UniProtKB/TrEMBL annotation:
Naturally occurring in which organism (per UniProt): Asarcornis scutulata
Protein name as annotated: MROH1 protein
Entry-linked Pfam families: HEAT_MROH2B_C
Domain Maestro/Maestro-like HEAT-repeats: from-to ranges: 62-309
Superkingdom of the organism of origin: Eukaryota
InterPro entries with a match to the protein in the record: ARM-like, ARM-type_fold, HEAT_Maestro, Maestro_heat-like_prot
GO CC aspect terms: cytoplasm
Amino acid sequence: AAPSARSAMARHAGPRLPLIVKNLVPTLSSVFDSQRITTTAFFAELLNSNVVNDLMLLETVMDNMTGRQKDPCLLVRMLALRGLGNISSGSPEKVRKHGAKLLASMVNGMDDKDDPHNLVALEAMSSLSKLLDHLEERDIQSMLLHIAIRIRPFFDSEQPDLRQSSIVLFGNLTKFSEEDCEAFFEQILNGLVTLLLHLQDPKPEVVKACKFALRMCGPNMGCEGLCDMFLNHLREDRSLHYGEFMNNVCKHLMQSYPEMLNRLISTNLFYFKSNWVDIRAAAPMFIGFLVLHVDEDHCQQVDLDQLISGE
């Protein structure tokens, strides 16, 4: 069934839905991929509508979606996660109650071992971003570091949608960092160079994601000047003079975290070999501004041999 047909059926079948759901549940165990895919897609669409709540089908459909996470078919696993994410729009008031289970499903999706193109991980990240606002803080905080570490490699993925989704999710996660502020601050520092360099990403949607994530990170960085810069210069509707912006960012970084110099340089060196020409050009400029603004006491940190060789 096409998505529009599925959603129309989900909206209008009303009183007949409990019987339809009951008859479809066995097909989720069918030996035929096509049957499992169609039923999972239909259930995923159902969860997008509050009708499942009205007819007290939410738990049944949700449990069946959770049960599809180990399905041998990648598309079924992907659709199951989409369905669970859809609860955020279909029954947002129920997300909190099932938060721990939904969160576990998303984390399992990100850790899917049989996902060569990261399609399941992409679905998990997109769905988790939708669910976050409705989850209990304590549920998220228990998984916060695991998720932040897990999504970090996707920031540099060759696939733009993976870069975008992971960076947006990281920005959304910062809202929950208060409890474990120091540990999460470490994750922000780990991702900071990457986010600043990807402001030069060839894909506008990734640039937009980086602006959002940096605006969200600002208040957690303990540097008012940097926070103000991110909020003022990284507005979605504002074009960015990148060189001038980075010069000022590096000034604030070296005033607030001079001991971070070597670490920031090392991360930038990694991007000297980036496949993206604008990012490859931004990395040495970033290092130049860092060295320009560091005070003499901390200059000794710089490993000149490493810098000159670009390794």
